[in-house]
């Protein structure tokens, strides 16, 4: 009798384990799908994938718009509260990576002249940026000049900024008050304030044709939801 009881107990343990794992995977997949759908609703990206394992989520979103600028890719390694009912409260903390392409910066400024520029074009390199365009503004009187600029892109808490900038007209460097006035109309190049949850980006990395915000992300295994526009 004792042997039969032990055999039944062993069978119960054997079958309970897979059921529990399957239940956890189902919950993780449900949360991953919810986050994926919420990201599509908020940002209308071209593609998104979300992996969830307990209180961690790994998110990759491609072709989304932030502050009116197309972003090639964002990746997030996030601590989450799966019981939360909205995206802003679900993501408790995250480390992020972001890739912004030169062509998308130029496309944005080609369609938006609120900065006072027209025909503004940027060229991104590992050492910084170069830009040129026609700038119109009113100081004591109205001016329209062809400006050239160089500098670097810097990371600040609310986005990517032009920094250490020199503006030049016909080869002559312009004074600081003029530089500050122009920068007020351009910065930030990309605002991350549209992100509805906290994201830590550690540093800026520039290359030929792109700028990246990078962090130490750790890939995550688990149930994954995917969606494509």
From TrEMBL:
Keyword Signal in annotation: yes
UniProt cross-references to Pfam families, sorted A to Z: LmeA (PF11209)
Residues spanning the signal sequence: 1-21
Organism: Thermanaerovibrio velox DSM 12556
Lineage top rank: taxon: Bacteria
InterPro entries assigned: DUF2993
The entry's keywords: Signal
Protein name: DUF2993 domain-containing protein
């Amino acid at each position: 009798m004792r042997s039969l009881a032990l055999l039944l107990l062993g069978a119960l343990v054997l079958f309970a384990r897979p059921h529990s794992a399957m239940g956890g995977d189902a919950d993780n997949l449900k949360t991953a799908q919810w986050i994926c759908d919420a990201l599509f609703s908020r940002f209308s990206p071209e593609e998104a994938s979300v992996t969830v394992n307990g209180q961690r989520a790994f998110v990759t979103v491609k072709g989304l718009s932030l502050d009116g600028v197309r972003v090639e890719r964002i990746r997030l390694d996030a601590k989450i509260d799966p019981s939360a009912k909205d995206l802003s409260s679900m993501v408790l903390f995250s480390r992020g990576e972001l890739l912004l392409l030169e062509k998308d910066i130029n496309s944005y400024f080609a369609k938006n002249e609120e900065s006072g520029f027209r025909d503004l074009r940027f060229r991104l390199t590992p050492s910084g940026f170069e830009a040129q365009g026609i700038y119109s503004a009113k100081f004591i009187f109205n001016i329209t000049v062809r400006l050239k600029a160089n500098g670097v892109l810097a990371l600040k808490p609310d986005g990517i900024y032009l920094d250490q900038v020199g503006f030049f007209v016909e080869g002559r460097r312009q004074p600081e008050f003029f530089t500050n006035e122009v920068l007020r109309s351009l910065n930030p190049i990309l605002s991350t304030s549209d992100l509805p949850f906290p994201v830590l980006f550690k540093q800026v990395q520039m290359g030929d044709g792109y700028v990246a915000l990078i962090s130490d992300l750790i890939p995550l295994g688990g149930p994954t939801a995917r969606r494509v526009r």
